[in-house]
Amino acid sequence: MSNNRTVLVTGAAGFIGSNFIYYWKEKYPDQALVILDALTYAGNKNNLQQLIDAKEIIFVHGSICDASLVKQVIVDNSIDTIIHFAAESHVDRSITGPDAFIETNIVGTHTLLRVAKECWLGENEVTNHHFHHVSTDEVYGTLAAGDAAFSETTPYAPNSPYAASKAASDHLVRAYHHTFRMRVTTSNCSNNYGPYQFPEKLIPLCMLNILAGRALPIYGDGLQIRDWLYVDDHNRGIDLVINQGRQGETYNIGGNNEWANIDVVKLLCKIVGEKFNADSTLATRFPDSPCAKRETAERLITYVTDRPGHDTRYAIDAGKIMGELGYNPVEVFESGLEKTVDWYLNNEDWWQSILDDSYQG
Prior knowledge:
7-stranded parallel sheet, 42% helix
């Protein structure tokens, strides 16, 4: 990708998007970045405030469903590349309130595609345009214990409103390539973890509950298996797809790292306990944690009723991106999880502002 490109990143105030912005700015410091984010509950402008204050990025507050705003952003900034993260992504919320998932993930993605087509393939054609769509492995459904991992040719079989909405958006991106010859790529990733993850997801939820001495809720028997991917390994994969991937193609990005949920939580308990043993100040900062009393946090594990339609196993076959683009994840799970624990211990102000809702101010 040439350095004179101007990139619009949607949903960059969220978990993966925020990490992507820092990754991208470090690797491509001279490339112009424009952010469009609606700042819903999972969007936190504070994640990017230092870059905004330094005028290293342009931040626009607004929805991807607002076609006139999207067009204004693309035209005013001469955008030729869109990297699309913006999505409602929490399965539990899609079960209790699916409407927002349909609106953002399907209608919003189509609005971006429609406006980009108008701006890039209209009278003043932008020949070097690129639309990269970030999706999920959940579009493929679920796997049994002995099943082969999801590949790019696995039939779609989404089982939650969230997964169904992402599957629909994937199909829209593909259709715009095949029908209108828009230059697109798609990546489907496995479960991400790392800094800035909103504390409704498994790892940050349990991390903060350990510190507060609250129950660690485990759905069902806790044996649901996920392929865990450190967020910057995901960002490296997206970078490769955008810069070296074939137009119109989909690439699965995974960590080759399958863990049962209960084992993830037990490893998290072990790492946090080791941090307390090594740093006596943590017991003073977090006196309600069992780790402050040199007790194992595993005693907080509480099994709760499984959620409806809970998928049994996800696993990514990343052979295509590894073979074609030379991708390999850098972090093993233990090192990535330790980095994540350190980040949450060192950024208490960030997650406290979420717990008390002051971040939305």
